[in-house]
Amino acid sequence: MRSAMIQTLVTAALCSAAVGAQHALPSADAVPAELKAGNDHHVRKRYEHPHQTAARQHELAATQNPHAIVLSCADSRVAPEIILDQGLGDLFDVRVAGNVASDAELASIEYAAAHLHTPLLVVMGHQKCGAVTAAAESGEAEGHLPLLLALIRPAVERARAQPGDLIENAVRINVENVVRQVRGSTPVLAALVDRGALTVVGSVYSLDTGKVTWLPGNQTTNEVATREAPSQPPMRPEPDLARAD
To answer: How far apart are CA 16 and CA 25, in angstroms?
Structure first.
């Protein structure tokens, strides 16, 4: 049964067009400019509030065609639709403390990328992340938290060897690790990345300024040590969103 489900996902991932899609999706090259412009609206507090009408709501009752997936922290201060000035149906949100990618998050990303044919995934960390801070602290966490913090600790340990603020560096490295993990996730996401149907990029949101900083593709590639994820292939080059207009 599991093999059949995986085969179904792979087949969907390799299809060249969305079945039953009602609207053409923008390319992964076009979406970043829109997201950067939306974040600029947030920084200046001059929102356009797109796609928030009753007509849009009724349109989405029949179908959805989000143009970006955002894997972000569940922190209440980091709401993608607000900080990127997007509306109903624009983003496929996957939110979890520490913006980690366990099987559940990867499955959600696979659904959007393979079945909704969303061309861009943004992994978004943020300044002063509580989950990253907890992973850096000594002591024993309760409940299910140890499982979550264990996913973040490799970034914290790598950050300890770098100059500068520990948490700030760990937040960035955690994003880079997740970007690498998603790009190499088999059988679905890696296949989409290989054929150019999915672009995966990293970013960090500032609580102080409201600005999203996009991590350059070469930074994401070079700063993650292969020894941290030996079972995954090297990261594939991606467009440098730091220079996207």
So the answer is: 13
The identity of residue 22, as a single letter, is Q
Helix, coil or strand: residue 162? coil
Helix (H) or strand (E) holding 220, with range, is helix 217-223
CA distance 173 to 216: 13
- DSSP-derived secondary structure for 55-100: HHHHHHTT----SEEEEE---TT--HHHHTT--TTTEEEEE-GGG-
Alpha-carbon distance of 11 to 14, in angstroms, equals 5
Predicted pLDDT of residue 22: 41
Sign of CA dihedral 214, 215, 218, 220: negative
Q: What is the pLDDT of residue 195?
A: 96
Helix (H) or strand (E) holding 203: strand 199-205
Distances (CA, A) of 219 to 127, 133, 208: 18, 23, 23
Delineate the domains of the chain, giving CATH numbers in brackets: 27-243 (3.40.1050.10)
As given in the structure block, the two tokens for residue 72 are 């972000």
> How many helices (H) and strands (E) are present in the chain, helices listed first?
10, 5
Regions of the chain with pLDDT less than 50: 5, 12-22, 218-237, 243-245
Distance CA 23, CA 84 (A): 21
Copy the structure tokens of residue 18. 């969305």
Handedness of CA 149, 84, 52, 61 (dihedral sign): negative
Q: Whole-prediction pTM value?
A: 0.81
